[in-house]
């Protein structure tokens, strides 16, 4: 089929092919625009229909991918892994969310590009530059051009594209709405409690053996964990982030705080290792002053005076764990921390 077989009103208007002539005022001639070549969709309605179906298919796939994103977020456990050749083992949820979200975005973009390149008018229009402030005539021309562009986009005539595009654009934002689920549920009381409880042995983090008072020398710093918590446990990182303990042996006469002395055993004091500023692990101890320093932001705590803050941005003292010795001579906890460990949180009070 050729352009001669199509009614004149169905074809885009031809551009003015006149070329300006160079003169003294304008030494460079305007080459003008090349003759416009009609696409197959401009002269063959069957080809236009095929392009319309292709665009609609892409928008539909985008909708399906958005539904798949939501279904993956709800149905796939966050700790499940899969093997994807040749990448290797991946988190199944992250892989599914990335794949479906990428497909949804790509199909919307590809559909819009294919629509513009095959069905919208591709005639080039040259216009003279004009002042920034628009004159009434210019505004009228802009509105006329907009109406002409809307007409040439065939949005009103090609309802299949219009409806599937609206569906894809309306459904896609639901991906972001579903992610709001991660704002809850509230932590409840799980930040207020740790694995420490009455009778739990203090286990050396390095040797994985229960501690005796004789294992802790005066001036030494030892790190401990609750009995029964192993590194290969699924929730080890979450639990140790709350239960990590540092143990220091002081001379009982050097302890200034009465509660600290009552909760210690022969000068052995046990405090949370988690800084009360942003939760960094404390690991620096100064024997002469009994100060411990957080390496992240230099918050400093006095272990001889209830682990109160003496320098830095930390908001409150380190929580102390009350300890004793069991019948077999091992150090044990006499309960949990008396307050939440780590930095303050908005629900705390």
Structure characteristics:
5-stranded antiparallel beta sheet; 13 strands; 4-stranded antiparallel beta sheet; 349 residues; elongated; disordered N terminus; alpha+beta; 32% helix
Topology (elements, then pairings):
Blueprint lengths: L39 H4 L1 H31 L5 E4 L3 E4 H27 L17 H17 L6 H13 L2 H6 L22 E3 L16 E6 L9 H8 L1 E5 L8 H5 L5 E5 L11 E3 L4 E3 L6 E3 L5 E4 L8 E2 L1 E3 L5 E3 L16
Antiparallel strand pairs: 1-2, 3-4, 4-5, 5-6, 6-11, 7-8, 8-9, 9-10, 12-13
Helix pairs in contact: 2-3, 2-5
Structure overview:
The termini are far apart. A hairpin with a 3-residue loop joins strand 1 and strand 2. The protein has 349 residues and is an alpha+beta fold. Helices cover 32% and strands 14% of the residues. The strands form four sheets. A five-stranded antiparallel sheet has the order 3-4-5-6-11. Strands 7-8-9-10 form a four-stranded antiparallel sheet, with no helix packed on it. Strands 1-2 form a two-stranded antiparallel ribbon. The model is unreliable at 1-6 and 12-19 (pLDDT under 50). It has helices at 40-43, 45-75, 92-118, 136-152, 159-171, 174-179, 236-243, 258-262; strands at 81-84, 88-91, 202-204, 221-226, 245-249, 268-272, 284-286, 291-293, 300-302, 308-311, 320-321, 323-325, 331-333. The protein is elongated, with a radius of gyration of 36 Å. It has eight helices and 13 strands.
């Amino acid at each position: 089929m050729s352009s001669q077989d199509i009614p004149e009103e169905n074809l885009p208007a031809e551009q003015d092919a006149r070329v300006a002539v160079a003169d003294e005022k304008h030494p460079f001639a305007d080459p003008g625009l090349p003759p416009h070549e009609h696409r197959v969709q401009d002269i063959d309605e069957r080809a236009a229909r095929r392009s319309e179906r292709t665009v609609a298919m892409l928008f539909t796939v985008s909708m399906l991918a958005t539904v798949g994103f939501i279904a993956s977020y709800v149905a796939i456990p966050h700790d499940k892994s899969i093997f994807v050749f040749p990448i290797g083992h991946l988190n199944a949820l992250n892989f599914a969310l990335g794949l479906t979200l990428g497909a949804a975005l790509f199909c919307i973009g590809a559909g819009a590009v294919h629509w513009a390149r095959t069905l919208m008018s591709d005639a080039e229009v040259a216009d003279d530059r004009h002042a920034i402030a628009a004159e009434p005539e210019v505004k009228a021309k802009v509105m006329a051009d907009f109406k002409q562009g809307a007409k040439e986009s065939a949005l009103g005539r090609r309802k299949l594209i219009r409806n599937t595009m609206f569906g894809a654009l309306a459904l896609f934002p639901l991906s972001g709405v579903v992610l709001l689920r991660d704002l809850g549920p509230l932590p409840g009381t799980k930040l207020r409690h740790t694995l420490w409880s009455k009778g739990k042995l203090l286990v050396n983090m390095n040797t994985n053996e229960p501690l005796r008072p004789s294992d802790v020398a005066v001036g030494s710093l030892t790190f401990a964990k609750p009995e029964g918590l192993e590194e290969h446990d699924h929730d080890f990182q979450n639990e140790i982030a709350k239960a990590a303990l540092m143990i220091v042996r002081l001379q009982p006469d050097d302890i200034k705080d009465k509660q600290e002395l009552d909760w210690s055993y022969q000068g052995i004091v046990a405090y949370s290792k988690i800084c009360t500023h942003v939760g960094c692990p404390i690991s620096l101890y100064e024997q002469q002053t009994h100060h411990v320093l957080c390496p992240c932001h230099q918050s400093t705590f006095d272990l001889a005076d209830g682990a109160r803050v003496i320098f830095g941005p930390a908001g409150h003292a380190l929580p102390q764990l009350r300890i004793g010795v069991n019948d077999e001579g091992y150090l044990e906890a006499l309960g949990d921390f008396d307050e939440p460990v780590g930095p303050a949180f908005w629900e705390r009070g």
